[in-house]
């Protein structure tokens, strides 16, 4: 029997009490009444949205400052307070929590897009226990149900008061913290090792990609337009249709969905209705084998359409390149557009202010090497092998990193599941 089992058998053999947050404490808001200028020459530390979103425990090594007047009334964050993000683009990311686990003489103020929760009795929950508890699956499920919205979701503090949490004895909390701290550290070390390995593999992939895709006069260099059927782009929703309406069931692919040479749909992916999808299809006419290329903003992300795009289309700024496959293989073009030499050529043609774009006319005129199809097939086979090792979530290093995280989350949720004591 483990020490934790012994503690549970001794201190709470019949279960633990469960209470709502409304019974245990109260919520308070972040900064109010602040202008942009208040954050340019500040005199007090404030906790940002990302500090809460990213960390189990608040990072108190804070460089973000806000101007606070001498007699100004603003809420400050105290040791043990549980902080939450107030809104997000998806319910899954709403109400992400972080806890102030360090005692400090400094005053900390909270970002206006976040809110805090303070216990009436600080002896009920250890701050280090809270940091794990409020990220556990059971509590996260309850928090996600408090979010309302369509394109952006906001947490209801009123509903948050009904979130129910367990209150195990403090010695039980301490032992769980000890176990999870050790497990978290071990998981972080293993993930860091795997991430370093993945970084090395990607550098290796980039080296071989550029080596294999470096050509001289031994192959013919032609403007891209001579080896393709068409180059089109999608439609701008501000001009042609609305996003995320009640009848929007089809995906609307932006640059965000083009990741690691694949098209990745998620809860963040915008939706369009059938009428909008038809308009998009008439514009870009996507087919299997088309190469998607991000021509605006984050320039140069690529992917090949591998399945019939029956329920999705692309946004303006994502280019659909339809190769003439008798001359140019889709996956050869995908890898080629990511090579350093070709990439530097089209980036040199990018124009615009803050958000730059490669004009479609310039892309059509882009000179590319066009080796024989047999040589293209050989190069694709080699690069696809490296690509799968680096990026495919069903195999290789990314899958191992994901497995480690899932293992940690399973173990954490197991430790934080308690039988409820009956009256």
What does this structure look like?
The chain is an alpha+beta fold. The chain has 3 domains: 1-16 and 170-208 and 375-423; 17-167, Adenine-n6-DNA-methyltransferase TaqI, Chain A, domain 2 (Alpha-Beta Complex), CATH 3.90.220.20; 220-370, Adenine-n6-DNA-methyltransferase TaqI, Chain A, domain 2 (Alpha-Beta Complex). The chain has 14 helices and 24 strands. The protein has helices at 3-11, 21-24, 49-54, 127-133, 137-144, 157-160, 170-212, 237-240, 274-284, 330-338, 340-347, 360-365, 373-391, 396-415; strands spanning 18-20, 25-29, 44-47, 65-66, 76-77, 82-85, 87-88, 97-99, 108-110, 114-119, 147-149, 153-155, 164-166, 220-223, 228-233, 250-253, 258-259, 262-263, 270-272, 291-294, 302-304, 312-314, 318-323, 367-370. It has a 4-stranded antiparallel β-sheet with strand order 2-10-6-8.
Put the structure in a nutshell.
The chain has 423 residues and is α+β, with helices and mostly antiparallel strands. The chain has helices at 3-11, 21-24, 49-54, 127-133, 137-144, 157-160, 170-212, 237-240, 274-284, 330-338, 340-347, 360-365, 373-391, 396-415; strands spanning 18-20, 25-29, 44-47, 65-66, 76-77, 82-85, 87-88, 97-99, 108-110, 114-119, 147-149, 153-155, 164-166, 220-223, 228-233, 250-253, 258-259, 262-263, 270-272, 291-294, 302-304, 312-314, 318-323, 367-370.
Q: Uncertain regions: pLDDT < 50 for 5+ in a row? A: none
Largest sheet: 4 strands, antiparallel
CATH class of the largest domain: Alpha Beta
How does CATH name the architecture of the largest domain? Alpha-Beta Complex
Tally of DSSP β-strands? 24
